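Quick review question:
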């Protein structure tokens, strides 16, 4: 929406013409500012830039663990997120990711 005709057309037929014109003028004047503010204040999710993993055994319990390192890019730069996952936690994570993949495939088919 950029033209005065488009904005003016949003008002009902019986709306006061001078008031509609004044509001249209104000909207057109402030629209670039509102768009800029909206873009600057938009919330964006972090993006995965890279990850690494390794599997080793916890020494005291001899339990296998997956060590996961995620490098995530956000508004404030790149951040490293580390997780230690047991077999059960890893299976739960993979199950959830598989469900997400299925839903995305359904949306894109």
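Suggested answer, residue by residue:
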């Amino acid at each position: 929406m950029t033209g005065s005709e488009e904005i003016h057309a949003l008002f009902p037929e019986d709306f006061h013409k001078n008031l509609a014109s004044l509001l249209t003028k104000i909207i057109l004047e402030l629209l670039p500012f509102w768009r800029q503010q909206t873009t600057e204040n938009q919330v964006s999710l972090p993006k995965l830039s890279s990850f690494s993993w390794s599997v080793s055994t916890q020494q005291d319990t001899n339990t296998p663990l997956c060590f996961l390192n995620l490098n995530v890019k956000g508004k404030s730069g790149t951040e490293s997120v580390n997780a230690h996952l047991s077999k059960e936690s890893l299976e739960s994570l993979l199950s959830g990711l598989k469900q997400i993949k299925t839903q995305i495939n359904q949306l894109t088919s």
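Why it works: The mean pLDDT is 90. Helices lie at 4-8, 17-40, 87-108.
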